[in-house]
Amino acid sequence: MKKCPFCDKEIQDSAKKCRYCWRWLQTEENSRPPTPQESEDTEISWDENQEERYIAGIGWWLLLPLFSLFVSVIIAFLRIQGILSIRWEVVGEVMYVMNLLILFYAVTWWLAIYLIILFFKKSKYTPKVYITFLVINFIVPACIVYFTYSAWWDPNAFIRPVGSSFISLILWWLYFQKSIRVKNTFIH
Predict the structure, then answer these.
(1) What digits encode the pLDDT tens for the residues 75-126?
(2) Cα 143 from chain centroid (whole Å)
(3) Which helix (H) or strand (E) segment is 113 a member of?
(4) 144 Cβ partners below 8 Å, 6+ apart?
(5) Which residues, 6 or more positions from 82, have their beta carbon under 8 angstroms from its beta carbon?
(6) How many CA within 13 A on the CB side of residue 148?
(7) At what angle do helices 126-147 and 93-121 cross, to 10 degrees?
(8) Least confident segment among 11-15, 40-44, 76-80
(9) Residue 151: what pLDDT?
(10) Cα–Cα dist 172/65, whole Å
(11) What percent of the chain has pLDDT over 70?
(12) Rounded CA separation 151/38 (Å)
């Protein structure tokens, strides 16, 4: 066994092409890489885990959470502006709830921006922070529904977001825990 000079993985001594990074290796008998026609004639041997190693990067299903983070930044900003525009017209318990909503949307806004940065840096903390983001987006609306059920607030306005955030939490938690793409992109 020898090491590939490009990706530093162990490959067979007789290998002409690295099976991990797919780069052609220079040998004594073959001082140049093969032409495209020569490379089409060669057969690539795959082991069962080789395909899993190549599934990486922000693509396919990882684009959905990234897109939702951009949307979250915009929605949180617009909701903060909307609450601030009517906040001075209300008093009492309603003012307390509005202050909590402003705090929640501000945290959502900053956390979404932080997650976007983590996504593009491909940080190993991205899956855990994203799941935390989803948990916050489930718990806070659920608490708002619970504490304002008998108050002035219309709970029907929050029941749908609580249900959808719970479904999102479960689906994306499972995806971020089991996905090969997530592991190859962020963890390895």
Answers:
(1) 989 988 988 888 677 777 777 778 888 888 899 899 999 999 999 998 889 9
(2) 25
(3) helix 93-121
(4) 97, 100, 101, 104, 153, 158
(5) none
(6) 22
(7) 170
(8) 40-44
(9) 45
(10) 8
(11) 74
(12) 75
Higher pLDDT, 44 or 161: 161
Residue that is written with structure tokens 């495209």 in the block: 36
Task: Quote the tokens at residue 181.
Answer: 């793409």
The contacts of residue 64 (CB under 8 Å, 6+ apart) are: none
Residue with tokens 């921006």: 113
Q: Which two tokens stand for residue 37?
A: 């026609």
Place of tokens 């090969």: 180
Q: With contact defined as beta carbons under 8 Å apart, do 126 and 68 qualify?
A: no
Structure tokens given for 170: 């479960």
